[in-house]
Amino acid sequence: MALPPSMNELLKWSVENSSVTAADPTAPPPQTRTLPPDAMNVLFGGPSDADLMKASIYAVQSSDPEVTLEDKVVAFDNFEQLIENLDNANNIEALQLWQPLLGFLAHEEKEIRKMAAWCVGTAVQNNEKSQRCMLKEGGVPLLVKMSVDAKRERRMLGERLDGMDVATEELGKLGRSGDKIDATDMDACDVLIEGLREEAAKGV
């Protein structure tokens, strides 16, 4: 079984800082390389990426008046950076964060809705496992419902579906079309959106 990246970094650091002097006691000490934060966390029990992901979502959910909108945007930005890592993106399901993340698409704050859509896009980008999780949780209708302007809606959906083969196939099914849809084909997406608009209006 492959070691977590943090453990690999720790092992590499250990080898680099012991191999030279072990082979030749008279050799000058090796140049010390600073341990990355993840490896430091392994040594000293700092928060894991999973802990940080949950903390970010909890911060966005917070009703504490001292947690400002700016704080929540920063938390979202941290979350987005974490899920750029494929393993972390796939871990959204295990951490049960898909529902709250998708729920933010209907948030009253426009900035929260935008950041949520951006994070969804990052999580599913060229990642079939996360695409299927997002679809299972009903993410596509929510993405469509969040926009009221037709042109902005078409552009946003196309951007969010870029690289999402599984999702575009699912959109074809929702639009009652058996053909695979090219996410960059805005005319094709527009036809599908019209089919989804009525469902979204009913609260789907």
From TrEMBL:
Protein's UniProt name: Nucleotide exchange factor Fes1 domain-containing protein
Q: One MF term in GO for this entry? A: adenyl-nucleotide exchange factor activity
Keyword line: Repeat
Annotated PANTHER family: HSP70-BINDING PROTEIN 1, PROTEIN FOLDING REGULATOR
Q: Show the InterPro entries listed in the entry.
A: ARM-like (IPR011989), ARM-type_fold (IPR016024), Hsp70_NEF-Inhibitors (IPR050693), Nucleotide_exch_fac_Fes1 (IPR013918)
- Keyword Hydrolase listed: no
User: What cellular component GO annotations does this protein have?
Assistant: endoplasmic reticulum
The job of this chain, per UniProt, is described as: Functions as a nucleotide exchange factor (NEF) for Hsp70 chaperones which accelerates the release of ADP. Required for fully efficient Hsp70-mediated folding of proteins.
Q: Which organism is it from?
A: Monilinia fructicola (Brown rot fungus)
- Where the record annotates domain Nucleotide exchange factor Fes1, the positions are 7-92
Into which family does the record put it?
A: Belongs to the FES1 family.
User: Gene3D superfamilies, from UniProt?
Assistant: Leucine-rich Repeat Variant
Domain of life, per UniProt, equals Eukaryota
